[in-house]
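Lab channel / #folding
Pinned by the channel admin:
"Please post every new chain as: sequence first, then the structure tokens as a reply. Keep commentary short and put observations after the output so the thread stays searchable."

First post following the new format, from NK:
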Amino acid sequence: MVFVLTVDQRGSRSTSDLVPELLNSLNRRPRRPGLLRKFERTAGDEVQGVLSEPRPVVDVIVELLRSDSWYIGLGVGTVTEPLPRSTRAGSGEAFVFAREAVTRAKFSPHHLNVIGADKRSAEQAETVLWLMASVLRRRSERGWAVADLLAEGLTRREIGVKLGISQSAVTQRAQAAGVTEEQRGRVLAAELLAGGVAA
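Reply from TO:
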């Protein structure tokens, strides 16, 4: 079982092409853990990548949700092996699921849909990702600043010094930003996706 992410730019007819910038971010060095085939433009304003591990999948989805510019479809299932060198040439049920998921995402909460061979696990993972999306969409720039520094491993004291605020202010911003909720959501979503793979 693998994970195929297919994402399509929202409002592409009225905005600039965001695909080159997204590809630079998703395929940056060092190589993203679990990336079986790099993200590529497949057609128009659509991008697709293949991953083998659930946690990096969740990380990519959070990155996409943060930009608030994409329809996100995740397919979980088998692929035809061996995988070709190009993501665009891949085939199998995970690719079919991802295609269906990105189409459904255009009518889904938070523009995100998950389809997998294990329908129950896919639906549960999708639900957790929707809840995470609702937290992320309410996060302010100040909240993101704290969240990003915490993700880098800085302590709250170090963040306070860097941002020129008190440690208690850092804690307040982290709480308002839903940092703990996001961290737990990432873990739970990855576990549910892993369960779907195991099934």
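NK: The radius of gyration is 17 Å.
TO: also worth noting, The CA atoms of residues 127 and 178 lie 17 Å apart.
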